[in-house]
Amino acid sequence: WRRCSTNATTANDQEVKQFSDIASKWWQWDNKNMPLHALNKVRVPLIRDVLLGSEKSSKIDHPMPLRGYRILDVGCGGGILCEPLARLGAQVTGIDASPEIIDVAKTHSLRCERVAANVSYECTTIEQLSRKEELQLYDAVIASEVIEHVDNIDLFLSSCNQLIKPGGKSIITTINRTPLSYAVMIIGGEYISRIIPPGSHDWRKFITPKELTKKLATDGLNIEFLRGIFYNPITNNASWFDDTRVNYAIVAHKPDEASKQSDV
After folding, report:
1. Nearest CA to 222 among 173, 177, 259?
2. How many Cβ atoms are within 10 Å of 113's Cβ, its own excluded?
3. I need a labelling partner for 232 at 20 to 30 A (CA). Which of 30, 163, 209, 246 fits?
4. pTM (predicted TM-score)
5. What pLDDT does residue 262 have?
């Protein structure tokens, strides 16, 4: 294992190493990343619909409805979420602090011509990316199943939000910090069923929807979607759920100048 050359303050070395150690298994269905594959059943349609907005009805049947949209996937791993978004036509940039995982993502993207044409990967951290002199702004910045693994969440979120263009979206999926999430994710997921590698999560780093909403509002973003996600390990299926006590998704909108002026 080696780490990207960076002065990062959000990347946790232990977390990065843990995921680097399973880099070669990222795209194997019979491994510990199965829940991430299952989550695509809810997060890909969510991202598509959030970006299309009022254009959904006219573009939903198009083979590449997200053509023209730029998406940043922060903590992209092996590209499990990047690839289906690229197939939908979006220009996707995936970043991760693990060079081993980035290598896996790059190699796997070459299996599909459309994916290879629409996705790019970089081994870096979100704060390093946000400090570049020529900033690339995105229609959506995604942090899916990553916030619970980073250090300095305030810096992480502010760096993500800085890269959202006016009128763009912040799309986050993560884990709530509740007694139920401890029972389900830590005890059940890591030590009983072991569908998650033991030690993968620190319950203290989980964040509640209220806390996350407040942090996003601090950067001027408006919440427009909040809903729970239910994962069934028996069927390896994910679906929307009204209960947010374990997994949940949140979407926030970065106002553009027109909307800011209308609020005055």
Report:
1. 259
2. 9
3. 209
4. 0.92
5. 55
